[in-house]
Structures
1.
Amino acid sequence: MCSESSLEVSKQKDFKCYSLTIVRGLVKAFQTLCWIWTLVQYLKVARVESWLGWIFSFGFGSIFLSLPPFERFLAILFAFSLATASIFILNQYFDRKEDRENAFKFNMPVASGRIAPRTALIFSFLLIFFCLVLIVLVYINLLSLFLIYLVFGTAYSAPPLRLKSVPVVDFVVSGIGAGFMPFLMGLELTDKLSPDILSIMLGVVPLILLHCGGHIIQAVGDYEVDRKMGVHTFVVRYGRRNASILAGSMFLLAGFLPFIYSVFGLLSYTHLLMFFALFPLSIPIIKRYTDVLKEPSTKNVVNMQKTATKYGIIGITVMLGYTLLLKMTSF
């Protein structure tokens, strides 16, 4: 009897230990899932997919005239990503009321409440701090350009300036902030900011036009909410159709500029082969744009943006690879 009783007690202890191990494992798994979920929300609030074009402007500028030291390029690219993410987080902080009314933005981390506005603001400031520290440690010559870049990005959304509410200024600031400034920051990596101003302007103008046009298309998608909330964008002031036509004109001019450069002897005809090769990638985007032109709705704008992202990534990769190859073979 005594041995049976001891055996029963031993089994109960083993069961308790086994149960406790399972509970601890479940708690640890739950904590891991919560950590992963939180990390995903912070990645979503950064909206990396929305600023791939900004990365292209920076990358194109960094190899436009010469090749920078690779380690410096990687470090500054990371700093640029931190700065850009902070700008997009600030935009969500100040636009959270409008985003809650937007059928395609209401589920964003700040607008939905998955990340508290105060938390998002602190996170944005931390990204700015780490960005500037990295710039000072790696390449302080870029500090002034980064500060201007951050001021532009903040002034776009933040009161009292809130430049997104000033017609024309809204898309011009976007073109400068997303096209011109990243390009210059990339150029500064190679210490080539001052010389050859003509070449620099020839390279950056198409980028500015593309980003201006892209901003206008985005504002066409936000038209209903912006008008309801009293945000006086260019699209709200002049109408969705007129804005869509202007954006299309900018895209068209940006596409034709390389051919115009060639006519005036500013670009070798051999480089035009790349643009002809990339043209098929633009066909699906053009089709989506015609849908926006016929019916400038939020749904059609979102479809156009998704298509532009899908095929644009391929085009960006080819252009950067082609430019990089030219620079490497020229040494």
2.
Amino acid sequence: MKKSTSTFLKHPTKDNVNRSANPPVTRASTILFKTMQEMYKHELKIKKHKKITHYTYGRYGSTTTIELENILKELEHAYHVFLTGTGFGGIALALMSLCRPGDEIIVSDNVYGPTKEISQELMKEFNVNAKFYNPESFEDLKSKISKKTKMILVENPGSNTFEFQDLSKIIQLAKRRKIFTLLDNTWGTPLYLKPLKLGFDMSFCSATKYFSGHSDAMGGSLAVNKKVFKKIMFFYKLSGYRMSADEAYLIIRGLRTLDTRLKQHSENTKAIIAFLKRQKKIKEILYPHNPSSKNYKLWKKYYSGATGLLSIVIKSKKKSSVIQFVNSLELFGIGYSWGGFESLAILQDLKNNKKDEYLKGRQFYRFNKDEFIVRLHIGLEDPKDLINDLKNGLKKIK
């Protein structure tokens, strides 16, 4: 029987031994076999990438992590899915598996801060050079390709500033030049965009965000095609990047309601944006909401939906009043991460300086005087209450 994605998410593997509706949490280091022959046979099965229910050693995962791998393989249309202990671990896994001394990587300038940091700081220790391109200029990307380019790393939409890129153009360029491609798809999730189906070699998601959905688990997902599978598996098995069974269980739990939650995040966000558009203190809303904009058209070209993360550009002569605005919000928590049930707000200083090593600077984004970016995650609360909270908070801005 063919199932829709919504139905599939509600019916992953059950615990047939204990008759539970949820899969078991299997914590294990040693995996036992009846005979040496059975162990050898199973190792060969894993090597040939056959369907399995367990590994030969706990470093590679357990029956619980395999269950999560299988769910995400289906969602991503992937050859294989690698799970990591944190979201960022998935980015590190891709870079460390595929890049070698003398290589270059081309990275979108609007990537997540730690992605920029590992690209330009850590990778250079291994003699891998990172070049950053303007996410709003395909020509700038093209101009930075060389014979040494090993990978193009894209985040779409961009972290905090939400630029959308023409993904097919990037894929076509990379295929012509035989360059690996990686897309950070945490915002869209494979529910709204399937990067591997589009032609990317790797699709990354921070499972900490919408996959988990409850702000109580951490993990990363790197979905890959057959072309890069062996290289990544080689490093994965040696590095011990695996996810724990407990985290995998919590993320499986979150995935059951992913479709339902994302619909509500999206509906709430539409209501919030309708309010924000009428506020004079807000210069710009960084989100695909304006049908006449380039970003909206590129979002519409590739995505089947939108989620609950956006930024607002606030015009103010006093940074302190913008901080007061964020501090005064009662329903928006102040904290990193997003994708949980609750609303969040944080002031993001993206100017090109080295004071904040976590955020890093931007080379191409144009910052006007007295403009500040506040990132909002719109949660699952009643949007009327969120609007009233924002309305009261905006009074603080001078």
3.
Amino acid sequence: MTLQNLIATAHENGASDLHLEAGMPPAIRVRGALRLFSDPIPAETLLAAAKEIIGQHHWPAFLERRSYDLSKTIRGARCRINILQTSRGVGFAIRLLPAFQATLDTLNLHPDLKKLVDHSNGLVLISGPTGSGKTSTLAALIQTINLGAEAKHIVTVESPIEYSFRPRRAFIRQREVGRDTPSFEQALLDSLREDPDVLMVGEMRDPETMRLTLNAAETGHLVFATVHSSTCAEALQRVVSAFPAEIQNNVAAQLADCLIGVVSQRLQFRQSQNIVVPECEILLSSHPVKNFIRNRDFFKIQTVLETGAEHGMWTFARYRTWLEKRTNFHIPTAAVESEEPESIEPEIALPNIRAAKTKPEEPAHPPVPQKPSSGSAPALSDRIEIEPDEEFEKILKKP
């Protein structure tokens, strides 16, 4: 059975994840439960599939890191794929993304979340454990801006790009770490010179990315980012504690000043509708919240959540009650067609850009000229096929 057939089978069964390991049967995760099916897959089959999907140009990067991330549409299913080396050989961890354009309505999120995009500057954090739908919620908020009345310039930095946005009212640039930029840090530095109204940071993984994200939110940009945590208070504490102890007070003050809100979510299966919906905890910035953050009294934030219903705040328990009373759920069907383009690969492929492993100022490889990429942006709608040109290759190689 080919990789395409396995993904099609997982998609038909409504799976959220597909796991492939050499010498073991394929496994799919449906409504949180892991199920095995079919016969064990030989190591040679998975190795050949990995070489085919990564491509000859990027294969050395996989051999160096022993892992590779990409997103791709296969058999009509948008997939986020992690290819990894294990003790048995090459393995795949594939996340199947929704076939519909992510919006607050299609994800069955509360309408109050629209208030988070009504600001011109500040920071919005989306938190939750792995696999809780953080990226989908982030995409829904960006799509809300994209469909809004006012045109905005949106720049996203992702690793990899999971949802490809089709510009409506907004002017949208999407950059993928490793392909379009060497790192989150470099992309954030670049973005401050690109006149953005809205920035989306796929994940705040390290203190430098967090610092640049906070700076962007303070300097007149609306910034959306994700962080791994189980509650809103834990998300804020995680950001502050990522920095050295001697500057945590300054970081806490900076975070308090620029924070708009935090959404922490987890997925809940609803038996009556046979769907999985996000269950959220929503914290909005207020004077008590800002004071608790500045003083690093994160444990007191839960009290504000419980008493802040009239200010638009939601605890998990209160949100669960709202879900129980709700009747108009969006039910995804096979007839729903995605508005996403089939491919988001650039029309002009530049040399592979590898993420910096240590300090940004010490790249492991010679720098790739950036000017030609900004001057040759791909078209927003119809693809334009460009024939290879030796003169163009010479231009790219110039210092």
